[in-house]
Write a structure and sequence with these properties.
With 501 residues, this protein is of the alpha+beta class. The protein has 15 helices and 16 strands. Helix content is 39%, strand content 23%. The structure holds 4-amino-1,4-dioxobutan-2-aminium adenosine-5'-monophosphate and magnesium ion (MG).
Length: 501
């Protein structure tokens, strides 16, 4: 074989040519004189057909011995085939085994999440995980594109830091040559210094929070994108964040439709938000919405909707299971797959049915001055079909660096809540730019003024109004991919109870 490799995603350009593929057996089926290999090479999956009559005995014996995840080289002719994945098929002329695998631990049947998480290093090869990592890559690229095209420069900020910036309760402490240091919760404070040097900057790096929350939105190690802009106020900050999110989503819809469809993402809500204005609402008004009669009724309706969906699914399950006994082999398979989907949807509905009454209680009893919990965010965003930007938060519950309004009651902060229950994906604010005020805030928070000396210098030497925000990468990936949990949005998640693999 000549050694030049062709990648599966390019096969469309090689119809009627002979090519070399190298990859892994995703699935294999043997029907007497034909072996159908679904070969994956990282760039995609291609059906490769080995015909006993057309290959050497050596190749044929290799083909029939293949099992899932065996590594192989194939040589063959590319033909167009409408029915195949990617519209092409390889008519195999030679099969070479690099390694024969006999028992790959992850099979196409259903596995529990702990089983899969413990085998994350292998699970990454599965189609859905593959698709999610590709969309993540696309989002990262779209973010860089957005900022670079607007004249922002990317700057990097330290991971070892001497101080807390986002509350002292979520710090990971480390020993930095016998000095206490913490893993960065944010790059923002350094970003502010860099904005005073470059005007428009963004950081893109890992951040760490020792949050003891085991939720579908929390990681201990996550990636954050933090733009910081000199001479921006809250509104300019919000305009930028809205433009950024629209631009990311539009980019992914255009370039990653195949991955989104593998993830079975219903993209209608993503399409909508590209064209519509985001909702902008003050904290006080969102509290009124949460506690309103209308919201209570909406949640009651939701319960009814879920119950009737559950009943319909139950009926469908009974009907197709009756059909199963006498069904043809292909139909049996179809029924089995549908039953798995129905069961998992019913599980989800039952979870919702347990949760919605709690959401209702939490929303109805919400008191002014509290921070939104995950369910409050869900209940609020449920009422709109675009992201919701909540501004003017009670200053007490926001970080020390946020500028306050004239009444000193509200912080000029903004949280952006993603639709469909994904919750807060962006937190940002206009920054306090007055030296005396920021010094007082540092003292009130019980922070050590010495470690903030350099930071307050930014208010001593050419202070200007400025603003910025932080976008959580994993929450953004979860939302755009429609994934239920952030643990599937990063290759090797770090979270409470999970440090391996
Ligand atoms: O709202 P946060 O805490 O804001 C900051 O850190 C600011 N310094 C940002 C800035 O103004 N430059 O975090 C920003 C975003 C959240 O909206 C969320 O998307 C994500 O970071 N995030 C997390 N993602 C996963 N796991 C966690 N534990 C997260 N904590 C925050
Ligand atoms: Mg926040």
């Amino acid at each position: 074989m000549n050694k030049q490799l062709t990648y599966i995603h390019q096969l469309k350009n090689h119809i009627s040519s002979e090519v070399n593929l190298a990859g892994w057996v995703y699935n294999v089926r043997n029907s007497g004189s034909l072996v159908f290999i679904e070969c994956r090479d990282g760039s995609g999956i291609c059906q490769c057909v080995v015909n006993k009559e057309e290959v050497s005995e050596e190749s044929w014996l290799a083909a029939v011995s293949l099992k899932q995840e065996s590594s192989i080289r194939l040589h063959g002719l590319v033909v167009a085939d409408e029915r195949s994945i990617g519209g092409v098929e390889l008519q195999v002329q030679r099969v070479e085994i690099l390694q024969l695998v006999t028992e790959y631990p992850i099979t196409p049947k259903e596995h529990g999440i702990e089983f899969l998480m413990n085998r994350r290093h292998l699970w990454l090869r599965s189609q859905r995980q593959w698709a999610a990592m590709r969309v993540r890559n696309g989002i990262i690229f779209a973010i860089h594109n957005f900022f670079q095209s607007r004249g922002f420069i990317q700057t990097d900020t330290p991971i070892f830091t001497p101080n807390a910036a986002e509350g002292s309760t979520t710090l990971f402490e480390t020993d930095f040559f016998e000095e206490k240091a913490y893993l960065a919760q944010t790059g923002q404070l350094y970003g502010e210094a860099l904005a005073m040097a470059h005007g428009l900057i963004y950081t893109f790096g890992p951040t760490f929070r020792a949050e003891k929350s085991k939720t579908r939105r929390h990681l201990s190690e996550f990636w954050m994108i933090e733009p910081e802009m000199a001479f921006y106020d809250l509104e300019m900050n919000m305009d930028l964040a809205e433009d950024m999110l629209k631009s990311i989503v539009a980019d992914i819809l255009t370039n990653y439709s195949q991955e989104l469809s593998l993830l079975e993402r219903d993209t209608s809500s993503l399409q909508r938000l590209v064209e519509k204005d985001f909702v902008r609402i003050k904290y006080d008004d969102s509290v009124d919405i949460l506690t309103s009669e209308k919201t209570a009724l909406l949640l009651d309706e939701l319960i009814q909707q879920r119950e009737s969906e559950k009943e319909k699914l139950g009926q469908e399950q009974t009907t197709i299971q009756k059909e199963h006994g006498s069904a043809k082999k292909w139909r049996k398979k179809q029924i089995e797959k549908r039953v798995i989907d129905i069961i998992s949807r019913i599980d989800q509905i039952e979870e919702d049915l347990r949760n919605i009454p709690k959401w209702k209680k939490s929303a109805q009893e919400f008191t002014w001055g509290a921070d939104f919990g995950g369910s409050d965010e869900t209940v609020l965003t449920m009422q709109y079909d675009v992201p919701v930007m909540v501004t003017h938060w009670p200053a007490e519950i926001k970080a020390f660096y946020m500028k306050r309004d004239a009444t000193d009651t509200y912080a000029l902060g903004v949280d952006i809540l993603a639709p469909e229950g994904y919750g807060e994906i962006v937190g940002g604010s206009q920054r306090e730019d007055n030296l005396e005020v920021i010094l007082a805030r540092i003292e009130q928070e019980g922070l050590d003024p010495k470690t903030f000396e350099w930071y307050t210098d930014l208010r001593r030497f050419g202070s200007v109004p400025h603003a910025g925000f932080g976008l959580g990468l994993e929450r953004t990936v979860a939302w755009i991919c429609g994934l239920n949990h952030v643990r599937e949005t990063i290759a090797f998640p770090r979270m409470l109870g999970r440090i391996t693999p």
